[in-house]
Amino acid sequence: MIKSLRSKLSGNNFLLFVTIILFFVLYISGMVIFQDKGFGKPQVFLNLFISNAGLIIAAVGMTIVLITAGIDISIGSVIAMTCMLLAWMMEKKGMDAWLSIVIVLVVGVVFGLVQGFLVSYLNIQPFIVTLAGLFFARGMTAIISAEMITITNKTFLSIANAKIYIPFISTVTKKGKVIHPYIYPSVILAIAVLIIAFVILKYTKFGRSIYAVGGNEQSALLMGLNVRRIKLKVYALNGFLAALAGFAFALNSCGGFVEQARGFEMDAIASAVIGGTLLTGGVGNVIGSLFGVMIKGTIESIITFQGTLSSWWTKIAIAALLCIFIILQSIFASIKRKSK
Amino acid sequence: MSSQIKKITKYRLFWPLVCLFAVLVVNLIRTPDFFNISINSNGVLYGYLIDIINRSSELIILAAGMTVCVASSAGTDISVGSVMAVTGAVTCFLLGTGDAYNMPYALAVLAGILAATACGAWNGFLVAKMKIQPMVATLILFTAGRGIAQLITGGNILYIKVKNFKYLGSVLPGVPLPTPIFVAVAVVILTSVLLKKSALGMYIQSVGINAKASRLIGLNSTLIIFLTYAFCGLCSGIAGTIATSRIYSIDANNVGLNMEMDAILAVALGGNSLAGGKFSLAGSVIGAITIQALSTSLYSMGVSADQLPVYKAIVVIIIVSLQSKEFKKFVKNISLKLKITGAGEKVTQ
Fold first, then answer.
1. What does the pLDDT read at residue B334?
2. E-strand spans in chain B?
3. Could you tell me which residue, B181 or A6, shows the higher pLDDT?
4. Interchain CB distance below 8 Å, A258 and B313
5. Which of A208, B193, B287, B323 has CB atoms 3.0–4.6 Å from B269's, for a disulfide?
6. Beta bridge partners of B158
């Protein structure tokens, strides 16, 4: 019993465990410290999802790429390009909202396919390919429009502002009014992506081959897996998810501008790493990344609730956390090496 | 004849030089007075070429540091841009925004560069001692660096009023060339002497090719990797000092923005493998100048700063694809096929 528990909690599962505990510790301490300001309200918790829906989707894609021992640092720019393209098509060209959404998703897939081709078939390091992708997408954003475009499309805004009230949970205001907490469609999108990715990684052949490729490419080849094809698919999938994250992002921001989502890829990588994904490949899961995103969101809302701390403290706090997790990972890795 | 061509194409710097040459030739066609250099009223040389070398100084210095850490650990340091901001923040904070410096200029610059070296040493500690993948290890400072810089400056943009602060980033009175060029040349010469005249360069290569094997033959691979990252930090510090002097202020959010990306590209364009091992400092310098030449020429063609990345990305992808092994194999196969069919025709004759 103890042995099985220990094996379950060993190594990377333990890291996931630590991540989840840390999230609860952070959140509960926030609730205790800012009790009078209403940190404990269910809406505050749901706001974590609302403001980070795009990051959850992006982090899921990033996790999958990281598991194959690759990396994609272009997603921040792809998100900016998606938002701008969406806004441009609807506002400047008067296109239908649904058609525009489909088009940007296709653009995302094509972008991912090209990057995947360069990585898997030309054997160029993913870092360099996606670095070029980062430059390309950011530049394209500026070429589409140098000025900010605000989305006023009615269909789009009705999706963006559709409040979905959660039944069974409610708070009562001082005046005796019953309020249900709400979420937006972008949250449902993010949760759906998360569940689908979890199922794919855990229960399908494709998911297992992703882990195999990341664990050891040579053995994956010897096993008869088409490594190149799998990598191509993973990058295409990530391109799609980046565009989807861009859509979720546009739902929140209702507009596109050149500097949007700068450095977003690093947030996604940090979330995945805090969630226990290794950059060397083969190890990681999307649940961990979700908690990575939630931890970042909690730190941000604690700093907002505190009121006097400046925004740069978020960066420093996240970096410090990242540091702790990375050192924990390295300690576990060295223990594992020694026990072998 | 063909063997001579083969010899030339096998030369390490051949492709990087061809790329630089191609960029320059395109420029010459677009703007015929591209290579003109004249003297302006202040007795300073100016022209496109001078401008390119002047503007690429920081990138050359960063690329020098990046080259050695790529060579020793097969990893990139993505914190260099943030470290530049930290350096500028420390220097400007110490100098103060008054009409006179709060402390001697040299001392403040030294403190800034020391802070950068400490940042590099921290990266080196994580990579060499804690055995953390370089990208993740440097991600910490990439995220925190600008935060720390803002912490030092209190979130403000600090302007330096004293006039001689600008000398490092522009021109010294009476000298016909911009100062950053001298700094870049000095850094490159010092680095290459250090790497070529001592065995250090070879040690770095051997650690980069196989750290385990190097340890077994008695090299302290941990120390060598640590030193390369500390050196990279030092280089970021020098580049940061120049960048702050150029705009005589510190803007923690924008100093060195995206410079880490440009530095990595410079190393890749210089024909260096990002997988570690053999490296060429000269290649990286050429790569850095190529990137700057590309930017300058695109600006002169009327491309806006925001749109520039698109063309940069396309050129980079073309260059890197041309240098990739798979592409070379592909070309070889085609030329082989051509030879075979050619030989076949001869036989039938």
1. 81
2. 38-39, 45-46, 158-159, 249-250
3. B181
4. no
5. B287
6. B250
The two tokens of residue A253 are: 């921001």
Q: What is the mean pLDDT of chain A?
A: 89
CB A190 within 8 A of CB A55: no
As a whole number of angstroms, the distance between CA A311 and CA B246 comes to 27
Nearest to residue B121, comparing CAs of B65, B74, B59, B188? B65
Chain A residues with CB inside 8 Å of B147's CB?
312-316, 319
* Residue reference for tokens 């030449």: B293
CB atoms under 10 Å from CB of A326, counted, come to 22
Whether residue A61 contacts residue A231, with contact meaning beta carbons closer than 8 Å, is answered with: no
Question: Which residues does residue A179 pair with via DSSP β-bridges, in sequence order?
Answer: A171
How far is the C-alpha of A69 from the C-alpha of A336, rounded, in Å?
A: 20
**Residue A118 near residue B321, CB atoms below 8 Å:** yes
pLDDT at position B128 over 90: yes
- Interface ipTM: 0.81
Touching B: A residues 84-123, CB under 8 Å: 118, 121-123
Chain B residues in contact with A280 by the CB 8 A cut-off are 133
DSSP 8-class letter at A178: E
A108 closest CA partner among A286, A237, A208 = A237
Query: pTM value?
Result: 0.87
Residue the block writes with tokens 């999958």: A64
Give the DSSP letter of residue B131: -
Under 8 Å between Cβ of A149 and A91: yes
Looking at the complex, does the CB of residue B85 fall below 8 Å from at least one CB of chain A?
Answer: no
Contacts of A322 in chain B (CB under 8 A): 139-140, 143
3-state secondary structure of B171: coil
Interface check for A308 against chain B (CB to CB < 8 A): the answer is no
